[in-house]
Structures are given as structure tokens and as C-alpha cells.
Design goal:
Layout lengths: L2 H26 L6 H30 L4 E3 L3 H20 L4 H15 L2 H4 L2 E3 L2 H25 L4
Antiparallel strand pairs: 1-2
Helix pairs in contact: 1-2, 1-3, 2-6, 4-6
Length: about 160
């Protein structure tokens, strides 16, 4: 796989994280949500933005030659995933969610769409970048558990 192809894959991984952050930011600005719920969504959106930054840093490391990675990611699948996230973003902007519905929607994103599967398809032996990938994967698992619990009314 060429560096140009790797660059495109990482750019799409960044887009996914930005898209999810936009969804969560949308919930953080809902006037009918309580302040603690708005803060929850703002915090989780910030973590998604951090994931985008980490993917971008890895992308830049690949382009600079500082990190060697192998990717088992099909670009068509990845682009399809980006389209799904963009579709979900449009969907939430046209519907009115209450707090419970927002948690259920977030749980759906973290379980059914599961952007973490792409992290498992990025391989490197560089410790710094391995730690970045592990952080993204662990945060995503944490988001999944928290959102599933909140969607079931467990806090």
C-alpha cells in the first residue's frame, strides 16, 4: 500500500471521528437537555475530537516516515462508514431527541457502527503510536459501556 493510500485512509479515519464528535456536540447544545447531560455530551465529543487528532498525528508520522504502519482497511468499507456517519449526523439534525433518546442513539453509534474496528486494523511497532491506538480503542470501549448503560437508565 502506498503512502498516498495510507494518507487517504487516515484522512477518512479523522473524518469519522470528527463526524461522531459533531453528533455528540449537537446533543451538547440541546436546549431541552439538563446542564449535566449537556456537559456529558460535550466531554464525550471532546474525546472524539482527540481521537481525530491522534489519527491525524499518526497520519503525519506516516507521511514524514517517522512511523511504519500496515493497514488491513478496505478503503471502500471505510468510505461507506464515513457516509453512514454523515447520514446519522443529518438524521439527528432533523429529529428532536430527548435525553434518553440521545443516549440510545449514542449507544447505537458506539455498538452497531463501532469505529473501533478500524483501530484494530492499524498495525505498528512504534510504541508512541501503539499507545495512541490503544487510547482510541479504550476510549471507544468506555463510550460504548457508558452509553449502553445510560440508554438503559443505569448511571
Amino acid at each position: 500500500m502506498t503512502n498516498k493510500e495510507k494518507d487517504l485512509i487516515f484522512r477518512n479515519l479523522v473524518r469519522i471521528e470528527h463526524g461522531i464528535a459533531k453528533i455528540y456536540n449537537h446533543f451538547s447544545m440541546k436546549s431541552n437537555f439538563s446542564n449535566p447531560v449537556k456537559n456529558f455530551w460535550r466531554n464525550i465529543a471532546n474525546e472524539e475530537e482527540l481521537h481525530a487528532d491522534l489519527f491525524d498525528e499518526i497520519r503525519q508520522g506516516v507521511l514524514d516516515g517517522d512511523v511504519q504502519v500496515t493497514l488491513d482497511i478496505d478503503l471502500a468499507d471505510l468510505k461507506g462508514f464515513v457516509d453512514k456517519i454523515n447520514g446519522q449526523l443529518k438524521s439527528i439534525q432533523s429529529e428532536d431527541y430527548d435525553e434518553s433518546g440521545a443516549y440510545s442513539f449514542g449507544a447505537l453509534i458506539e455498538t452497531e457502527l463501532d469505529e473501533a474496528k478500524f483501530v484494530q486494523m492499524v498495525h505498528t511497532n512504534e510504541p508512541k503510536f501503539m499507545n495512541m491506538l490503544t487510547k482510541i480503542e479504550n476510549d471507544t470501549k468506555k463510550h460504548r459501556v457508558i452509553l449502553i448503560n445510560h440508554s438503559k437508565g443505569v448511571t
